[in-house]
Specification:
single chain; alpha+beta; Metal Binding Protein, Guanine Nucleotide Exchange Factor, Chain A; 6-stranded antiparallel sheet
């Protein structure tokens, strides 16, 4: 009886171990990749979004909690070089969908994920849209 019980336990343990290690090329780990949203993705979700693209990151304004932040301009880091056409697949760095060409873009002292734009004395706060 003991040999029979021991055999069953060993068999079940073996099946359990085989099932836990079986077949997955990533040794059971899941590999996922993600990327920042594209201008096309943002404007599909909200056609009225006010965005620009800088160094591969989309920045968006009119975000309530960002608008409430007390921020101070640091240094000019770029400016809008073109207004995008309706061809969103060709939206490139320096392009905006609503800001005019020549709009200055500034970093801020308080945060790295928010930039300030300024044109004709009017400023707006833009949040970097990131993955996830």
């Amino acid at each position: 009886m003991k040999k029979w019980l021991l055999s069953v336990v060993i068999l079940l343990l073996s099946l359990y171990l085989i099932a836990c290690t079986g077949g997955d090329k990533n040794n059971g780990s899941t590999v996922t990749t993600s990327k920042n949203p594209s201008p096309e993705e943002i404007l599909k979700q909200d056609p009225h979004a006010d965005i620009f693209l800088l160094k591969g990151t989309v920045y968006q304004t009119n975000i309530e909690w960002v608008d409430k932040l007390k921020l101070t301009k640091k240094t000019q880091i770029s400016e809008i070089t073109a207004i995008s056409s309706n061809d969103l697949k060709n939206f490139q760095n320096g392009m905006a969908n609503k800001l005019p060409k020549g709009t200055k873009i500034y970093s801020v002292n308080e945060r790295e994920d928010v930039l300030i734009t300024e044109i004709n004395g009017k400023t707006q706060k833009y949040l970097a849209l990131s993955e996830g």
